[in-house]
Amino acid sequence: MTSSQFSKFPLSDRYSLMTSSGYDSSLLDQFLPEYYKRIFPFKPYVKWLSYNQKPDEYFAKREFAFILEGDVHLRYRSFDNQADFETELCKVNPHKLDIGAVYSHKPKDCKRHSDFKAIERELVFDIDLTDYDGVRRCCSEATVCEKCWRFISVAVQVLDKLLEEHFGFKARMWVFSGRRGVHCWIGDEKARKLTNAGRSAVAEYLSLIVGEKLDIYGSGKKALPVHPMIEAAFRVALDSGEVDKMVLEQGWLELEPALSILEHCEDPELRVTLQSQFEEVDTADQRWQTVEASI
């Protein structure tokens, strides 16, 4: 089908044509003008990024980057109001729209100001399925199946609880990343105004990997008790309703991988007990019941 033939179909039929038999990137340039003109949520989008402030005083200082075909980036785009934003977006029809920081001056005037700098931006967390390739047995790399999304479901529940209860962040928006994961946009004023050091501190607090090793005690220390954040995450994961299914679907407690996992148990007595019990039963389900009884 040629682009001219495609353009003659009603909008709803064009979408069906693009999705029913697989995505066809050659149709994107034909579809985007209709998307920006008829579907893109300009009003709530501008309202969100204005944070209850006047658009010409706040939204106008927000940078947008238009990404065109061939990964061409048009940076430092900014708009005084919704009308200007809508007009330009419908004119350019970018393949991708990136949201940047709020600057000290309007980004489109960046060359006029020597003190032009970013003053705030949302705190964003990215959860990608490839981060779980070390324990994801059903798929790997770019391949994704329904079982994979249990990892995302648990991760969202854990991170959402920690962000609220450990940091007090209220304005949390979870969105599909468009590929293999999700993003969490945190819009609280105190989050938007964090320094780079502050952002790093939040990320470090939530990290379990130090170098290439798992750290459940905090700051690389090897002493009990386990860090409260880890305890909270552990309970959320177990209560998620997903872990029971993941244990069986991913084959973590088939005998060989189960014994391999036990090598990381730092309680010698518990390790010996579980190893004996694991070898006495025949199924992963029975081994999981044994683990549940011990926690």
TrEMBL record:
GO terms for cellular component: alpha DNA polymerase:primase complex. It holds the Pfam family DNA_primase_S. GO terms for molecular function: DNA-directed RNA polymerase activity; metal ion binding. Its EC number is 2.7.7.-. GO terms for biological process: DNA replication, synthesis of primer. Keywords: DNA replication, DNA-directed RNA polymerase, Metal-binding, Nucleotidyltransferase, Primosome, Transcription, Transferase. Transmembrane segments: none annotated. Signal peptide: none annotated. CDD domains: AE_Prim_S. SUPFAM superfamilies: Prim-pol domain. It is an enzyme of class 2 (transferase). InterPro entries: DNA_primase_S (IPR002755), DNA_primase_ssu_euk/arc (IPR014052). Belongs to the eukaryotic-type primase small subunit family. This is DNA primase. It comes from Parelaphostrongylus tenuis.
